[in-house]
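tool_call: predict_structure(chain=1)
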Amino acid sequence: MYYTFRIRSRKKVFIIRNIIFDVDGTLWDTTEVVAQAWNKAISEVGGTAAVVSAAVLKKEFGKTMKVIADSLFYDADERTKELLMEKCCIYEHEALEENTDNLLFHDVVETIKKLSEKYRLFIVSNCQAGYIELFMKKAGIELYIKDWECFGNTGKGKGENIMLLVKRNNLTDVVYVGDTQGDYEATQMAQIPFIFAKYGFGHVENYERAISRIKELLNL
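tool_result:
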């Protein structure tokens, strides 16, 4: 048994058997913790006047690490940008490992568990290598995610990684759930439907369907 949803612009019904998720802004919000970690890295490496906050990161998350570095550390040379991002990722990983607060959006774990009874679930993110694995471990959902891919593993953008994951798993009838315009554009490249997580970090135009909380995926 599978859920269906109607894409209003084309008036077609798609049978969904596979769901791919974004992470930041869709499944959890780490921006407060990560901002502290990145500022620690900046103070250690130097070479930039940047100061990072949760609000700043919410505008940057969803982009590739290279694009984020160019945006935040525009006043640094290329080598310094590389060092900054390297340290940022190290301190971010350590901070999230040590964090004991619940950073997940409400009902994420329960919804993932219920969805896994009827769908195959996947993750594609523009994050660094190891971030998705850390997220799944902290959330306790490793058993429910069939496969994942990210920029840190492949050096490719989200659209290409969606296509890579779809091909690798021979997926049909798939939808992507994300919260930014970049997520939507990635689905356009991959030619799959998009569901906009309105509670996340971004604003998206021309989406096919939207949810105000993740639990609504159970009722599409």
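agent: The longest helix spans residues 78-98. Proceeding to next step.
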